[in-house]
Write a structure and sequence with these properties.
The complex is a heterodimer. Chain A is mainly alpha-helical. In chain A, 75% of the residues lie in helices and 0% in strands. Chain A folds into two domains: 27-197, no CATH class; 208-513, no CATH class. Chain A has 20 helices and no strands. In chain A, helix 13 crosses helix 14. The radius of gyration of chain B is 26 Å and the shape is globular. By secondary structure, chain B is an alpha/beta fold. The longest helix of chain B has 32 residues, at 2-33. In chain B, strands 2-1-3-6-7 form a five-stranded parallel β-sheet. Chain B has a four-stranded antiparallel β-sheet with strand order 11-10-13-14, with no helix packed on it. The chains are: A mainly alpha, B alpha/beta. Chains A and B meet through helix 17 and helix 19 of A and helix 1, helix 8 and helix 9 of B.
């Protein structure tokens, strides 16, 4: 409710203020939003904004210095000194970049991971009977720290690469870092895609605004009706999983898959909807991941902006690094051309997914979770050539057939389901024990016999979850078929259109679960 | 310019039409979903219908309006009492309901319910909606809305169609519309709000006829008293209620209605709650009479007097009210001696309760044993006997005679479905049993 009042006030202010003040309204709104969430940790976002802005300016200066030098010198001089000059400027830029990365990933690591590191070091010291323990520090976790740090680091790396010039206005840059719709849980936007839209004034566009509201309503429906309802089953069963062997656990894991997806994507829909109401187009972060036909396809559809960030700012630099090119040469020499190419690619994937795991949190379970996906993707890469050969030998095995498509989707969902055990359990042994127990009994009927009623998840809740889940499936299916739902809705008769609006509006007002029972947005903790 | 004005006008008309249709749909929903059998509606109507002073007003939630038979009080004392109760009534609700009462009727003595959960921070917000739905429009109603409803719940509280969502998937809503269209409903007949086992008896009192089966109260789960959950806001409302009473010349006392011994035992730290309330009220010089600690010589808390672990049924309310009338007679005459009525402490009460007051069984994880658990007085050691009955058998067969071991190894029985019965009593007692529990159990 508070959020929606805040939104209404921000929309009103944005459209009432003259064009040159519009971006300032957004900045004030974003900082107010952040302060209302927790003003005690605002220093972190201010620190990131200032350090990244000024290091960006410094990088820009080096770029300009280099360009100026090259424009002033004659061809002969350039021929003799170009390489050395470029190396010198690159070294200078690299030092600045390194400082920015260290400062900002440093503060992220200190706040988010220092506790985890010190606990593990202390365990190690204890194992070797060293009579010394590192103090464990506890910090308040600033809202969306991973999201805005990654976004800012993406910006600084782009400036380093000369992809675009650095921002020249600290306050405008502060808006890019803190833009309130994306601060809770992303998406992790790119400067060249978002910043210009933020700084430009937008006048009121009815269709855009309406589409934005539709997206907010849809996101709220996903979050409040589906995610928070599924969460009730998850929070009741998972901490007491031993009491629900067999399908009790299976249903809770499936509910958790639904919960996390609808919570995260619902939140993103709300963010994108809010931005669209302001005339700003934010990048997509989900593309119906449970329709993916492989694990790598799943990660191209799930948290798209994190995947893209990892690809551009981790996988490519690592793959192009000197160490990796040496590894490639070594592998080709010793294992042949095929494996020689594959080994560095696989190692790169494992590193990326290890980073994805660490991004999710300071816990071994997330590291295992990341590695699990890393190894699945590597296995996919290794299996692809033999499978291709098999398909060539037996042309009747066609991956274009609907049956194969459905099988591939179900297979991916199953693999994601297994991965879920690692992210949902408190630790790895618990995940394994939970997995074992889930296979210990075949009792699918418990969903309908009232066995789970003591969790508060009665038949009424089940019915609502099924109906709302079906609604989600239908919308996703249509989107998967290429239907643009909101555009299609625009083309319908007013009675149909309003009918749909009222169904969703009343659906939310009547059947939403109070977030106080389940907590806020799931990904806000990351 | 002209075009832009037209567009703006069109958008405004659209928004207006959308809102009107929304409100219409909400009204239809309210008509269908808001229960026709509302006790708050009848209570408030009765409150508004008279200007006669209230001699004793009872202000509390369901434990009060099910536990005190106001008509019986009136008959015994020849006065005019009224139960200003509402479901899950929070102390904020109580305060605004009292203000509403003063707008129409003076109150001579106010009896305030101070149950543990009324003091907690997370007391139900929805409780305001079910009173606000039927309250007359006034400044007090607006103050109630803004004072007692959470900011987050404004929308849901304001639109009655939205706060009965559970009703929509039950079949009760099918009967709401016909009842609401009936003359009896328009005339506020209590008959329209009658369920087979619950009905509005007038003057705010609600009768419930169901009862625990004799000496089979089973497992009772009453949450421990958690003083850290007490909200400052609730305490502030107690202070406001006391202040409001004193401003209006009303005498005020606090009271708790009886609780079954099993609930009392299940809470575990009832004494801490009792002390907390007593100390808190001392600063306002308000006496606290806790009928949970009532002596059996005054009122014997039998399981059959209760409909669940907290609420008296019609029979219990009548017996209790009979004693309560005597209590008020003495209170008003100034001859009341609390020691005649109450134990000083829970310990004293538990020492006196030299018997087992509830028992229940749970299968062990290995499925070979059944374990009986019980609540009992502090001077007592319980003993247990187990019986079984198979389909087709008329009587129970003794499986294991009384001893202090509370486990029974049921796997020794032949495979099949059984009803297992555990009986319990205090060691040394000569009664057949104090309490029993029965469960259906399958031996594989």
């Amino acid at each position: 409710m508070n959020f929606y009042v805040f939104l209404a006030a921000t929309f009103a202010a944005y459209y009432l203020f003259p064009p040159r003040y519009k971006w300032r309204v957004l900045l004030a709104g974003s900082y107010l939003f952040y302060a209302l969430a927790d003003f005690r940790v605002m220093y972190c976002i201010v620190f990131t904004t200032i350090t990244v802005f000024y290091t960006g300016r410094m990088l820009d200066k080096v770029h300009k210095k280099q360009a100026l030098l090259f424009s002033q010198k004659d061809a002969q001089w350039l021929k003799e000194n170009r390489k050395e000059c470029i190396a010198r400027f690159t070294r200078e830029r690299r030092r600045i970049l390194l400082a920015a990365l260290l400062l900002n990933f440093g503060i992220l690591a200190l706040i988010k991971y220092s506790g985890f590191v010190s606990i593990n070091i202390n365990l190690l010291l204890g194992a070797f009977s060293v009579p010394f323990q590192i103090p464990t520090l506890h910090f308040l976790l600033p809202l969306g720290i991973s999201f805005y740090t990654f976004q800012s680091m993406g910006y600084i790396m782009d400036v380093y690469r000369g992809k675009y010039p650095a921002d020249d206005n600290l306050f405008k840059f502060a808006l890019f870092v803190s833009f309130f719709p994306q601060i809770i849980q992303g998406p992790i936007s790119r400067h060249d895609q978002l910043a210009k839209q933020l700084y430009e004034p937008h006048s009121f566009d009815y269709t855009q605004f309406k589409h934005g509201i539709e997206l907010i309503v849809w996101g709220t429906f996903k979050k409040a009706v589906i995610a928070d309802r599924a969460a009730q089953l998850v929070v009741a069963v998972i901490p007491n999983y031993e009491r629900y062997p067999g399908f009790g656990i299976v249903y809770a894991i499936i509910a958790s898959m639904l919960q996390v997806y609808t919570d995260f994507s619902g939140g993103i829909d709300i963010s994108r909807g809010v931005a669209q109401c302001l005339g700003i187009d934010m990048v997509e972060n989900f593309r119906r991941p449970y329709f993916a036909t492989s694990v790598s396809d799943y990660w191209r559809r799930w948290h798209i902006t994190l995947g893209a960030w990892m690809k551009d700012y981790l996988l490519y630099p690592v793959s192009l690094s000197r160490a990796f090119s040496r590894l490639g040469k070594f592998s080709r020499k010793h294992f042949g051309n095929y494996l020689g190419k594959l080994i560095p690619a696989c190692l790169g994937m494992v590193i990326v997914f290890l980073a994805v795991g660490i991004w999710h949190g300071a816990n071994w379970k997330y590291i295992i979770y990341g590695l699990y996906y890393g190894f699945l993707i590597v296995a996919g890469l290794l299996m692809e050539p033999p499978l291709q050969r098999l398909r060539k030998k037996h042309p009747s095995i066609s991956t274009d057939k609907p049956f194969w498509h459905v099988f591939a989707i179900l297979r991916t969902v199953f693999l994601v389901y297994i991965g879920k055990f690692f992210s949902i359990a408190d630790n790895v042994p618990e995940a394994i024990s939970m997995m074992k127990l889930s296979f210990s009994k075949f009792n699918p009927q418990i969903l309908f016999t009232g066995y789970l009623a003591d969790t508060g998840f009665n038949k009424y809740q089940l019915f609502l979850l099924c109906v709302s889940g079906l609604c989600l499936f239908c919308v996703s299916f249509l989107q998967e078929k290429g239907v643009k739902i909101r555009v299609a809705l625009d083309e319908r008769h007013l009675v149909v259109r309003w009918g749909v609006y009222y169904i969703f509006l009343f659906g939310i007002l009547l059947f939403s679960v109070s977030s106080s029972m389940t907590g806020g947005f799931f990904y806000a903790q990351f | 310019m002209h075009n832009s004005k037209n567009t703006t006008r069109r958008i405004f008309i659209k928004i207006l039409c959308f809102s009107v249709v929304f409100l219409l749909l909400q009204s239809v929903l309210a008509f269908v979903a808001v229960p026709a059998r509302s006790y708050s509606r009848l209570m408030l109507h009765e409150l508004y219908s008279s200007s006669e002073p209230i001699d004793i007003g009872f202000l509390g939630a369901s434990r009060f309006f099910r536990g005190v038979n106001t008509k019986e009080i009136d008959e015994q004392l020849g006065i005019n009492s009224f139960d200003l109760g509402s479901s899950n009534q929070s102390l904020a609700d109580a305060y605004y309901l009292l203000r509403e009462t003063y707008r129409y009727r003076p109150v001579k003595l106010l009896v305030l319910d101070l149950s543990a959960n009324r003091l907690y921070a997370d007391a139900s917000n929805f409780s305001a909606a079910i009173v606000l739905d039927y309250m007359k429009f006034s400044k007090n109603k607006a103050a109630y809305f803004f004072g007692a409803v959470d900011y987050e719940d404004y929308f849901k509280t304001l639109l009655p169609g939205l706060h009965y969502n559970n009703e929509l998937l039950s079949t009760t809503w099918l009967s709401n519309a016909p009842i609401k269209l009936s003359r009896a409903y328009r005339e506020y007949s209590p008959e329209v709000a009658r369920y087979p086992e619950t009905w509005y008896s007038g003057k705010g009192y609600i009768s419930v006829s169901t009862a625990y089966k004799d000496r089979n109260i089973g497992k009772v789960n009453v949450a421990k008293w958690e003083p850290e959950r007490v909200s400052k806001e609730s305490l502030a409302y107690v202070e406001k209620i006391i202040g409001l009473c004193r401003t209006n010349g009303t005498d005020v006392i606090c009271m708790s209605v009886p609780t079954p011994m099993a609930s009392f035992g299940s809470m575990g730290n009832y004494q801490e709650y009792f002390d907390y309330i007593k100390i808190f009220l001392e600063q306002y010089d308000v006496p606290y009479y806790n009928f949970t600690l009532v002596k059996p010589s005054v009122f014997l808390c039998k399981e059959t007097n209760f409909t669940d672990p907290m609420h008296l049924n019609v029979e219990g309310a009548l017996s209790f009210t009979n004693k309560l009338a005597g209590f008020f007679r003495e209170y008003q005459a100034g001859t009341l001696n609390p020691e005649d009525y109450f134990y000083d402490s829970c310990d004293e009460m538990l020492r006196d309760g030299a018997y087992v007051y509830s028992v229940w069984m749970e299968p062990q994880r290995n499925q070979n044993e059944l374990t009986a658990y019980s609540y009992y007085g502090t001077t007592v050691t319980p003993e247990y006997a187990f019986y079984y009955k198979k389909a087709g058998m008329d009587d129970f067969v003794l499986y294991r005679d009384y001893n202090e071991n509370h486990n029974a190894e049921v796997s020794l029985l032949d495979p099949g479905e059984y009803i297992i019965r555990a009986e319990t009593r205090a060691v040394g007692s000569s009664v057949d049993y104090d309490q029993y529990d029965e469960i259906t159990y399958t031996v594989k």
